[in-house]
């Protein structure tokens, strides 16, 4: 900026000084304030997530896998999750839920091998599934798909959080700090799998934590504990047990993930998945 | 195929059609998030109109210069409120500024906003008004004089070199301000455009579409306010100024409409996985707000009317042109509001499973209700009325009407 010819009096200096003050305040706002970075304090927040003393999140890599062929749709897992984690009963919010897929037989002469697909999840499957309105003889096949947080490697929810209240712990679990979350809902919109919701009581974002308070104490998540069909397989990818069910599952099945084309890198694995599952 | 799915199974919840993930059944972002991009868009657009005078020397627009800047400021002051009211924990609203998570576009809001209001708008207004503030602080009495004196922040130099510096500074700030205005609203577009989980939102064109719809709505707002203000004050309408605003409104609308058309052409041609649900959305839940209000009333009709004026200006009487500008500005303002609605609410009406739809539940009172939204839409007009009272006085002591007075930089 070219300074104007200085008049006899000193008024321009006055303005210049004022500009300097304004400039430095702006500089302060833009540089000094963010000094406390959001990533800090991760361990403290894990403590708040009920991590016991002595638990080292860097020594674990938790993972869940789902065997669709083994799910019978009893939805004990949904009820157990709601009870264990005090998930609000109303409205329809779930950390985990069960979807029922019904694939119709094709119409005669349609040239198709399969008919249309109908999906439902009444109350997340918590109260079981009523008999389908579609007559049995018109159904080609049907199956149940349990859903939960996909524990993405490149999780869009943690990327989107404006304060870093949701984060991926070193053990792979994506957690939310309810004392830090501002309740903007950006993470909920960013999750391609619909796994997050705004808890109407706390007014903060909530999601599956793999029952963090249990797994850090050597227990299984509540949903895994109650599953009668062995459809939910849980384990530690870093320290697999000798007869580890997770290792066995991966060895015996061809596995897939949900919406892999979005590049979120979901870690939750599915076996026996159909193309209709989204 | 989707239609078949929708009719195949009556859902348990009456407002759900087809299958929707359980957590998606209640809409998360309400009407407040509709008016937030609407208001910031008006700010950016009004500023761009003002910058045409400062940077591109469109002298016909000078009568609307200060009005546009004051309009931008009035709306900018209200812009953060819908966000604040929407937060689950408004008392934690400072956290994104104190501890921003740098990978989140939303964390940038405080910085973009602070930059725009402090480094651009307030500074430009101050340099533009400095001479008047000094004069008014001497001539006026009482509270008014006190306000003007406060706003001079102790700088009373109105010598010729100082005024030249003012004009140069204001121009420099406007030049910085144009990309800043684009940033302010492009950023809002990026908030939606970056959400790859949602095929209606996740789109690289989104920030650009937001910017041009912002320019369109901002110019329309200035036309609207300019006409109303002159009518209320019983002043003659400056038809040259209106014609110039109409011309730029038309140009911006052509670009905006082309971009939105391109978006749809691409969607339909590429026909990705989501196209069935998006087509059903446009033809069903968004039929009135998208096809009728946004496309027909808010885009097509103004395009034809404003385009006709560009072609046959000399053959159309002044009065007809005035009324056409007024009508088009109202249609465009409603149309762009509908566009924000279609983006924000429309993007939440279908499930990310692409298998069904939920419904928006009308809420009148309450934190995120329509009354709050209406209040937040009217508030900038109240603020603007105060600004006009203090900073666009009908008659100065010199007997010159500031609306027609040329700004100081004219000397440069």
Structural features:
heterodimer, A: about 280 residues, four-stranded mixed beta sheet, three-stranded antiparallel beta sheet, disordered N terminus, B: about 400 residues, two-stranded antiparallel ribbon, 15 helices
Structure overview:
The complex is a heterodimer of chains A (278) and B (412). In chain A, a hairpin with a 5-residue loop joins strand 5 and strand 6 (174-176). With 278 residues, chain A is of the alpha+beta class. In chain A, 40% of the residues are buried. Chain A has helices spanning 11-31, 42-48, 76-84, 156-160, 186-190, 212-215, 222-226, 245-252; strands at residues 62-67, 97-104, 117-120, 139-147, 166-168, 174-176, 197-198, 205-206, 232-236, 255-256, 269-271. Chain B is built from 15 helices and two strands. Residues 1-11 and 396-412 of chain B have low confidence and may be disordered. The longest helix of chain B has 34 residues, at 160-193. Chain B has helices spanning 2-8, 31-54, 65-78, 80-86, 95-98, 109-139, 142-151, 160-193, 206-233, 239-270, 275-283, 287-312, 318-344, 346-349, 370-391, and strands at residues 17-18, 356-357. The radius of gyration of chain B is 23 Å and the shape is globular. Classes of the chains: A alpha+beta (278), B mainly alpha (412). Chains A and B meet through helix 1, strand 3, helix 4, helix 5 and strand 7 of A and helix 1, helix 5, helix 6 and helix 8 of B.
């Amino acid at each position: 900026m070219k300074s104007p010819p200085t008049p006899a009096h000193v008024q321009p200096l006055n303005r210049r000084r004022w500009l300097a003050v304004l400039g430095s305040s702006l500089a302060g706002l833009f540089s000094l304030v963010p000094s406390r970075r959001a990533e800090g304090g991760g361990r403290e927040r894990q403590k708040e997530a009920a991590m016991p003393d002595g638990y080292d999140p860097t020594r674990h890599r938790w993972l869940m896998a789902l065997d669709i062929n083994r799910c019978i749709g009893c939805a004990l897992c949904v009820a157990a999750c709601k009870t264990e984690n005090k998930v609000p009963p109303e409205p329809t919010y779930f950390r985990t839920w069960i979807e029922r897929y019904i694939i119709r037989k094709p119409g005669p002469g349609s040239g198709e091998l399969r008919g249309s697909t109908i999906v439902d999840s009444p109350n997340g499957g918590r109260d079981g599934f009523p008999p389908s309105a579609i007559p049995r003889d018109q159904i080609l096949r049907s199956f149940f798909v349990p859903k939960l947080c996909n524990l993405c490697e490149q999780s869009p929810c943690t990327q989107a959080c404006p304060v870093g209240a949701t984060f991926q712990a070193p053990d792979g679990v994506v957690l939310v700090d309810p004392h830090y979350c501002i309740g903007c809902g950006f993470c909920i919109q960013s999750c391609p799998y619909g796994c997050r919701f705004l808890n109407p009581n706390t007014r903060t974002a909530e999601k599956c934590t793999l029952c963090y308070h249990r797994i850090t104490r050597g227990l299984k998540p509540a949903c895994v504990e109650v599953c009668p069909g062995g459809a939910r397989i849980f384990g530690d990818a870093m320290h697999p047990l000798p007869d580890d069910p997770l290792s066995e599952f991966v060895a015996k099945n061809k596995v897939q993930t949900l919406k892999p084309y979005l590049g979120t890198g979901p870690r939750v694995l599915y076996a026996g998945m159909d193309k209709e599952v989204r | 195929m989707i239609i078949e799915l929708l009719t195949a199974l009556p859902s348990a919840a009456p407002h759900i059609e087809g299958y929707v993930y359980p957590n998606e059944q209640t809409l998360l972002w309400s009407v407040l998030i509709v008016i937030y991009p609407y208001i910031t868009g008006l700010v950016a657009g009004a500023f761009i109109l003002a910058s045409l005078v400062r940077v591109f020397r469109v002298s016909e627009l000078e009568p609307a210069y200060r009005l546009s800047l004051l309009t931008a400021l009035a709306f900018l002051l209200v812009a953060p409120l819908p966000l604040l009211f929407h937060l689950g924990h408004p008392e934690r609203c400072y956290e994104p500024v104190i501890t921003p998570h740098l990978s989140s576009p939303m964390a940038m809001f405080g910085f973009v906003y602070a930059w725009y209001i402090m480094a651009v708008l307030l500074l430009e207004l101050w340099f533009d008004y400095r001479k008047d503030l000094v004069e008014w602080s001497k001539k006026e009495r009482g509270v008014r004089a006190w306000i003007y004196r406060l706003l001079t922040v102790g700088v009373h130099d109105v010598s010729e070199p100082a005024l030249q510096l003012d004009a140069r500074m204001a121009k420099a700030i406007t030049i910085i301000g144009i990309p800043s205005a684009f940033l302010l609203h492009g950023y809002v577009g990026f908030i939606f455009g970056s959400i790859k989980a949602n095929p209606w939102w996740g789109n690289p064109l989104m920030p650009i579409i937001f910017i041009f719809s912002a320019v369109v709505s901002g110019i329309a707002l200035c036309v609207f306010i300019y006409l109303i203000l002159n009518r209320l004050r019983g002043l003659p309408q400056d038809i040259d100024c209106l014609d110039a605003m109409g011309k730029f409104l038309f140009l911006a609308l052509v670009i905006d409409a082309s971009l939105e058309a391109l978006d749809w052409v691409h969607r339909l041609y590429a026909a990705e996985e989501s196209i069935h649900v998006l087509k059903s959305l446009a033809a069903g839940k968004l039929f009135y707000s998208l096809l009728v209000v946004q496309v027909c009333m808010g885009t097509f009709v103004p395009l034809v009317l404003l385009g006709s004026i560009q072609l046959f200006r000399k053959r159309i009487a002044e009065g007809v042109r005035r009324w056409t500008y007024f009508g088009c500005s109202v249609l465009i303002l409603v149309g762009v509001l509908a566009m924000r609605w279609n983006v924000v609410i429309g993007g939440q009406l279908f499930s990310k499973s692409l298998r069904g739809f939920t419904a928006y539940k009308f809420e009148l009172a309450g934190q995120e209700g329509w009354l709050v939204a209406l209040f937040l839409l009217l508030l900038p007009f109240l603020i603007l009325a105060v600004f006009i009272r203090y900073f666009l006085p009908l008659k100065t002591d010199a007997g010159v009407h500031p609306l027609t007075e040329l700004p100081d930089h004219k000397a440069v």
